Amino acid sequence: MDLMEMFFISLGAAVVVYYGVKLLLFSRMLYPKGWFPLPESFFSYMGEWAVVTGASEGIGRAYAFALAEQGMNVVIMSRTKATLDQVAKEISDATGQRVKVVVTDFTKENVFSEIEDQLKDLNIGVLVNNVGMLPSIIPCKFLESTELDQTIIKVINCNVKTTVKMCKIILPGMENRGKGVIVHISSGVASIPCPMYSLYSASKVFVERFSQGLQAEYKDKGIIIQAVAPFGVSTRMAGFQQTNIVTLSPEDFVKSSLHHLRAGDKTYGSVCHTVLGWLLQSIPRKILYADCMLNISQDYVRKKQHRRYQPPHQVQLLKMEDTNNLE
User: How confident is the model at residue 308 (pLDDT cuts 50, 70, 90)?
Assistant: First the structure.
């Protein structure tokens, strides 16, 4: 056997091993309960309290309920007191856990000193950085965004600054106790550069990189820090789309995402979204970014919004909130 033949055999074997390992790692994400089991008392062991931002509805509300069902008291944070009070009552009635309401608007400046005062005496074991702002459900080019200067400030404050500041407030206590969980809600659209949602997707890339960097820094302290990047979840931000195999209810998504908690520093939170993420990254960018594809995407979302179904219990909420899509 000559040297060239040995080289190609070795190269082929290396490729097979490489893709075999990738396939094994991917298959683990399809069976998270088996590969990444959590002890029954996992969450209550982490601490007495969980803090969830953007908890008045959608994914945040579902996380607050799920963590209360695991035996944790919860702090729920958002900007609409009446809705938060209702959610607090529902959680308390259903689980018997204590619920603390903190009313704040994360799009504003200088809200974190008051938040820190309200959290300073709590033994916080879990933080879910969920709150996020989508400038417009309908895809549009960056310069076509309404009130662009204010939109930039609000998106950065809500999606970027809040993520960092909440970690600054809560992470020191976790480090001192040597345990804790921080979940950062990113988005599937951060998987690749996303035209027509450029500002939003870029803010979620920041969330992912910040989260992954923190995990590398603090994993030896016994702290789990994970970015979760969902695609379709039936929330106000997504126009309350009908649930199906791809678009999950907030409750189903959160239940699935908690099974992936020990699956690495970033997950898509569910099996179907993991497959979607893999497919999206496999499509050539020239196809995704072609003008015709962008126009088709814009028209599709616009038609979906025109036909969308708004649950009756959300109608009053939509009247109370402003038109920005904030969760």
Answer: low
Please name which of 269, 243, 205, 210 lies closest in space to residue 36, comparing C-alpha atoms: 269
pLDDT tens-digit series, residues 67-91: 999 999 999 999 999 999 999 999 9
How many structural domains compose the chain? 1
Q: How far apart are CA 271 and CA 284, in angstroms?
A: 23
CA-wise closest residue to 184 among 198, 205, 156 = 205
Structure tokens at 210: 């910040």
The residues, ordered by sequence, that sit 6+ positions from 283 with a Cβ below 8 Å of its Cβ are none
Catalytic residues: 200
DSSP 206-228: HHHHHHHHHHHHHGGGTEEEEEE
Domain extent at residue 285: 41-326
Write out the H or E segment, with its range, that includes residue 18: helix 3-30
Domain assignment of residue 23, yes or no: no
State both tokens at 132. Answer: 């996020």
Q: Give the CATH number for residue 317.
A: 3.40.50.720
